[in-house]
Structures are given as structure tokens and as C-alpha cells.
Write a structure and sequence with these properties.
mainly alpha, Arc Repressor Mutant, subunit A, 50% helix, elongated
Amino acid sequence: MDIIRRNTDYALRAMVNLAEHYKKQPLSTKTISTEDGVSYQLACKLMQKLHNARLVRSYMGPKGGFQLSRDPSRISLLEVIEAMQGPIGLNRCLLNLAACPRQPDCPVSKKLAKLQKYMSNYLGSVTLDELSRRRSMKGKGKVNISNPKRRRR
């Protein structure tokens, strides 16, 4: 079972890409699709969902595309995840007492609730700005290492 679904992973990558281009020209869906390795049709659906969640703005025209709706330091991974798939929950029993009447006394529920809180707090603390800075620093310090299994001729 995946806690973060594949489409959400693609949306996260697109949002990091947009964070790297923050305050520059909008990125077209085609560019996002190509740069992030997602089909164009899927990229359109993802961007529409992110737009509906007000995480991105869209611009029409030949130089149109998408931009983040606010500074990347103010958009968390948790926001993107919840925009794509709703709130993430480890277990149905954590939703409310109606979902699990044993919850107040259940030792498993208490441990899962602690993990749920940690996970939500952590994902809420990681921003797109942080991820885009890490990715751009990696790109600058890239070292080209040849494949050691490849024969020299």
C-alpha cells in the first residue's frame, strides 16, 4: 500500500519544478510533462487539480502556462499531497470515534496516532523552496561518473 500515490508523486515533482522557476515565465504543461517525465494528458489533469486547490495560477496565451500561486517557502509537501489525494491517514481508526469505538483505550490506535501526528507535522514542515534548493545545488555539483562496467575501447 502506498501512502503517497503515484499521481501525487508526479504532482510533487511538478511543483518542485515550478518552485525552481518561481518569479520567471510560466511553464507550459508540455514543458512540465517533458521535464518531469509524465505524459502530457496526465500532466494536464495534475495541473488542473493543483489549480483547483489554488496552489498554482494559470496564464493563457503563447507565453502562458503555470506558476506557483505563492512563494515556494509557503507551500508544504502536506498541502500538495492533500490537494491531490485528500488527507493522508495511516488507518481508518484515526478518523474519529465513530470509525473505531475502541480508539480511546486501544494501545495500537495511540501509537498510530502518534506516528500520524509526526508524519503530518514533518510533511507540513518541508517546503517546496527547500526541495528546489536541494535539487538545484545537486545539479550544480554534478560529477559525471562513467559506468565502471562499460568497456574502454
